[in-house]
Automatic annotation (TrEMBL):
Keyword list, A-Z: Amino-acid transport, ATP-binding, Nucleotide-binding, Transport
Entry keyword Membrane: no
GO MF annotation list: ATP binding; ATP hydrolysis activity; branched-chain amino acid transmembrane transporter activity
Organism: Albimonas donghaensis
Family stated for the protein in its record: Belongs to the ABC transporter superfamily.
SMART domains the record matches: AAA
SUPFAM superfamilies cross-referenced by the UniProt entry: P-loop containing nucleoside triphosphate hydrolases
CDD domains recorded: ABC_TM1139_LivF_branched
Protein name: Amino acid/amide ABC transporter ATP-binding protein 2, HAAT family
Any Pfam family matching the protein: ABC_tran
Amino acid sequence: MLKLENVVAGYGRTRILHGLSLEVPRGGLVALLGGNGTGKSTCLKAIAGLVTPQDGTVALDGRVINDVAAEDRTAMGLSLVPQGKEIFGGMSVAENLMMGAYHRRRDKAGVAADLEGVYTRFPRLKERRRVLAGMLSGGERQMLSIGRALMSRPTMLLLDEPSAALAPRVVEEIAEAILSLRDLGLTLLLVEQNVGMALEVADYLYVIRGGRIAFERAVDDGVGMDELRDFYLSGAH
Ligand SMILES: Nc1ncnc2c1ncn2[C@@H]1O[C@H](COP(=O)(O)OP(=O)(O)OP(=O)(O)O)[C@@H](O)[C@H]1O
């Protein structure tokens, strides 16, 4: 469904991705692991259209989308759940969710149904729908961030470190939510530093090092936690 080939990208003259290639098949749950500052978020931004590749291609369903604007990629089914839970703290939970459906203004009935769907998936968001998003806990913010992305009716979600700074019990909840999205038929690319969580949910793993993919393997083929941790920690330093 999604294919990156030899993507070179960065900020200004600074190159961060040095020829990165990866694939996410339809319905797959693929994890991209790597240490701090290795370019994981930059990779997601290149897919979402927030960073333009200087070389290489990003293709969705066989179509190269390098020149497609970010908002048009959202309409094509790509939705980014950014790191840092970039929610609007001064707006209510419900208003934040509606922001995810901004390009579907003419589809009032569909948007209302999807809002109910998000509330069914995350009952805590329903309970807190009138609360200012800035008052939510870390786990609730992450759920809101995922819920807001779902409001654009995506076919593929790009999740940027959804477990970051969350307690283990909450990470487990988020992992379950991610698995339930896969069961719903969504295709997922999950950027993580939490190796345990990635191994628990993903069916395929990539490790990024120096702006390129340095290791990849199907989880079913056996990937040891220690092997992975050593691999990318040794590469990060
Ligand atoms: N907007 C920007 N302008 C300039 N440099 C940036 C920008 N965003 C990120 N960088 C730099 O690009 C490099 C890769 O950042 P990126 O956020 O892609 O890494 P990451 O693997 O997601 O790391 P982390 O897990 O710490 O978020 C870092 O050195 C970072 O400082």
